[in-house]
Structures are given as structure tokens and as C-alpha cells.
Amino acid sequence: MKLLRFKKNGRKKNGVVINGGVVEIEHSVLEASQSPPDDFKRKNFYSLDEIKIIPPVQPSKVVCVGLNYRDHAEELNMDMPEEPVLFLKPPTTIIGHNDSIVYPPYSQQVDYEAELAVVIGRDARFVNFEDSLDFVAGYTSLNDVTARDLQQKDGQWTRAKSFDTFCPLGPWIETDMDPSSQKISMKINDKIKQNSNTKNMIFPVEELISFISNIMTLKAGDVIATGTPPGVGPMHVGDVAEVNIEDIGILQNKIISLE
Ligand code: MG
User: Fold this and answer.
1) Tell me: the pLDDT tens digits for 199-219?
2) Is the pLDDT of residue 139 over 80?
3) What is the whole-number distance in angstroms between the Cα of residue 21 and the centre of ligand 1?
4) 57: in domain
5) Tally of domains within the chain
6) Which of 10, 43, 107, 209 could form a disulfide with 147 if both were Cys (CB 3.0 to 4.6 A apart)?
7) 24: in domain
8) Do 79 and 169 fall into the same domain?
9) Cα(57)–Cα(4) distance, integer angstroms
10) What is the distance in A from the centroid of ligand 1 to the CA of 26?
């Protein structure tokens, strides 16, 4: 089931993707992820080109994982990390499908990073590995946009990862999929730049939820960005970036300059 948030005539609504269109539902996306579809009160039907898709959740935080793909570690000639390396992106970075990434004038190298995002469905604290997937609402696609030159200059990653629009998320939440075996790719202007599979993750989703929830409470709606495969590289103004994850679909965003 694919759950989304959208705008129609300026109003925010929730929906489920059915037969290439969207059925508006009364449940919020997070409520719907925890309910059987028979319970949904259905309202209007829209085709996808009649609506404006907005980010599927508004998290209190986006918790990101650094190096988490074996093939990426090999590409960088780095040792496998013993524990996940974490950093945060503020919620103000989030934009939705077809929104624009704004290239900041303070950077000369803004990179794409295709990532599988985990959306938390209910508050999670001190969760063990075995129970961790019970706390998941579903999965979506994320582009961990990074000002690479500023990341290297600062040492700390906050500035490089935190410009407004640096976290495209969406287009929707897929509630029924296996996160441990998904093809994941990034295209820039129709050229494939990253092409891997989530089975190459060093720390699987279960371990990330357990590890993070033993540090901080994961609130319902929070997002975990699970790291990027090999092939990261720069984007330029005018480029179109597409994250594609097998069971989710395409998250597309254009890069524009600051007006
Ligand atoms: Mg990343």
C-alpha cells in the first residue's frame, strides 16, 4: 500500500495510491499505516496530475547514517565501521516530490546521495532487533543532498547537510516491502550514477532502529536515512535528480539557483 499526502485546491489531504490515481482518505498517513485498509473512510478520487504531492511526513528529526554500504566502503577504500555513524538533518531541509533543490551560493560542490528512508510509525525507545520492524510505518526514498566542500572544510557535517531543500523525501510511503532486498539507483538527467541493492547494507534496518532508539526516542513520523551506495557525485543547476527504489518508485527533483 502506498500512502501519501497531497494538496488539492490549496488544502492538505491524505491518500492512498490505487490504479494509478489517488483515493483521498480521512486517516492521516501514520494512522493509515497502522490500520487495515477496510477501515479507511474513502472520499474523492484524483488522478496524479490533478494533485500536488507534498512530503509524506513532517518528522521531528531525520536521523542519517554515514557509511552503510559494503560496496561504498570498498569504493572509498575504508574499513567497515563497527557501529553506525549518525548525524541529523533538521526538518526544515525536507521537500517533496517535484519540489526544487536550491543550490546554495556558499558551495561549489553539491552532491546527490540516493537513500532508502525508514518512516517510524509509533514512538520507539529501547527497541530490540527482533521487535524493531513493528515500529515502522513504511519506507520511502530520500536524497541526502550534501555540500561536499563544506563537509570537508568544516569537519562537522551540520552546515553541509542542513541547507533548506537538502532533503527531498517521497513521493509516498510504501507499507508492504522487504527493506533488505531492494534495487536502489540515482539518475541525473537520465544517466545512471548509483546502482546498488539494499542487501549491501552493513547495518540492516532492524539494527539501525535498535541502535538509534537506544540513544534517542524515535517519534512517530521520524525518518531514518539509511546511507548511500557507491557512485556519489555532483549535481549542477538545471539538473534533474531521480532516486528510484524498486518497490517505491521515483522521487524526482530539479536543482535551481537561489533567486
Ligand atoms: Mg548520506
Assistant:
1) 999 999 999 999 999 999 999
2) yes
3) 31
4) no
5) 2
6) 107
7) yes
8) yes
9) 8
10) 34
Q: How far is the CA of 168 from the centre of ligand 1 (A)?
A: 12
Cell of 186: 540515482
Q: Which domain holds residue 42?
A: 2-52
Q: Residue 39: pLDDT band by 50, 70, 90 thresholds?
A: confident
Predicted pLDDT of residue 189: 98
Q: 139 phi and psi, to 5 degrees?
A: -135, 150
From the CA of 124, how far away is ligand 1's center (Å)?
Answer: 22
Dist. CA 111 → ligand 1 center (Å): 10
Q: Report residue 132 as a C-alpha cell.
A: 524493531
Query: How many Cα atoms are found within 13 Å in the side-chain-facing hemisphere of 24?
Result: 15
pLDDT of residue 134: 97
In a domain, 126, yes or no: yes
Q: How far is the CA of 23 from the centre of ligand 1 (A)?
A: 33
Q: Do residues 33 and 157 share a domain? A: no
**Same domain as 85, residue 37:** no
pLDDT digits (tens, 9 = 90+) for 83-127: 999 999 999 999 999 999 999 999 999 999 999 999 999 999 999
161, 225: one domain: yes
How far, in Å, from the CA of 117 to the mean position of ligand 1? Answer: 11
Q: Give 2-35 pLDDT, tens digit per residue.
A: 999 999 999 999 999 998 899 999 999 999 999 8
Tell me the whole-structure pTM to 2 decimals: 0.97
Mean pLDDT, all residues of the chain: 96
103 CA distance to ligand 1 middle (Å): 17
Which CATH number covers residue 225? 3.90.850.10
Please state, in angstroms and rounded to a whole number, the distance separating the CA atoms of residues 173 and 171: 7
Burial 132-158 (b: 16+ CB within 10 A, else e): beebbbbbbbbbbbbbbbbbeeeeebe
